[in-house]
Amino acid sequence: MEDNMTNNSLFAYIQxxxxxxxxxxxxxxxxxxxxxxxxxxxxxxxNNPNPQFPPQGLYHWFDxxxxxxxxxxHEGSATYRNRYVQTKGFxxxxxxxxxxxxxxxxxxxxxxxxxxxKDTANTDLIFHNGQLLATWxxxxxxxxxxxxxxxxxxxxxxxxxxxxxxxxxxxxxxxRTGELIVFGYNPYKRPYLTGGVISKDGLVTHRAxxxxxxxxLFHDIAITxxxxxxxxxxxxxxxxxxxxxxxxxxxxxxxxxxFGVMPRYDDGKDCQWFTLPSCYIYHTINAHEExxxxxxxxxxxxxCRIENPLPQCDHDEEPAIPRxxxxxxxxxxxxxxxxLGTGEASQHQLDDAPTEFPRINDDYIGVKSKxxxxxxxxxxxxxxxxxxxxxxxxxxxxxxxxxxxGRIGGETVFVPRPNAQGEDDGYxxxxxxxxxxxxxxxVIYDAQTLSLAAQVVIPRRVPFGFHAHWAPN
Length: 473
Prior knowledge:
This protein is mostly beta strands and about 475 residues long. The longest helix is centred in the N-terminal third of the chain and has 9 residues, at about 90-95. The chain has one domain (about 5-470). It has helices at about 5, 90-95, 240-245, 320-325, and strands spanning about 25, 30-35, 40-50, 65-75, 75-85, 125-130, 130-135, 145, 150-155, 170-175, 180-185, 195-200, 205-210, 220-225, 225-230, 235, 250, 255-265, 270-275, 280-290, 295-305, 330-340, 345-350, 370-375, 385-390, 400, 405-410, 415, 425-435, 440-445, 450-460, 470.
């Protein structure tokens, strides 16, 4: 990136831990501190925003082109590689050798025939039907990625069954059926929210259009074996400003939070909506079904709840702070209960430590689980993680792991041991950036004892990124 950007407070998201890398590379036989467990085989992969060219106008962290960074582990050895997700927009810009789209902080032309936003596929990754799918927070077409080489295979239309439906980040894989439960949204026109089911063989088998009154900033869902939980929360796109070609997100503290519990294959008409006090949730943890004393089905969901997702910066700090402040979040572990028989909803807080990007053992998605692994929010000017917390989500009891001074981590991913004997029988993996040594590591912890097993040294820095996944060999 150009020097005037890397030292300019208007471009805070291409500096420090966010600074992009400018090459794709492969490094084999990485050095290891400790010992990589012999029974761990696969790749920790993370999706990062990484602009290919200097941006047009102001740059936001969410704007960057998708780039996958990963470390492949096999029989105690490790290989690092990184590759861009070669979306349609990425290829167009590569041909022109310049950025062709403005980011979300800049105005757009609402009369334009081309897409207003570049689908970067920069947000999330999920392994389904033998391939990685890279997805985008603004909802677009997933891109299929080879889970070993990270090379882009192309836009995924699921055998022509996707149609005009888009898919947002954070679909959920049902480990019992192999189905991928997805959602998509469109802030520019109705229906603002769509749900869907993709079979284990990679075909869209169901779609439901949901009647939401405003274009909320939909970001995640939760599932049980029979239901999908949609989050229609009062952080939303300002429709009038969108008509003017300006992207503005509002948060209405007087508007209740709505949670829709819909049978998995419903058309949306039988979605049961519950209301609770205003809040926002970027990420759910898990959900399951119970029955109360009267035999009513109760859907129980855990998530990281935020009281106010748009805090105001009303004090004098360094110039970059106003552009970073909105990510100075205070998300807390909450349990939510939705009684399908009585229509009652409740919530209660389980801990007072701020955490985000929560993960569980994915084999327990949709059923009652006990353990979750949450990156711990550091006392920094924006959202960074200085360790992780292992939670008992049934009681709130927890244990903390701290990475150490000058060390910042990413999303933690649980990797089960072969023939695991329990829910937490496995490993916790994540990238850790050492700011002092200007390098990154893949760290591996025993999930039961929380002891550090290995630090795989990556001979470069990996920028602070979004979501991660485990791709089995």
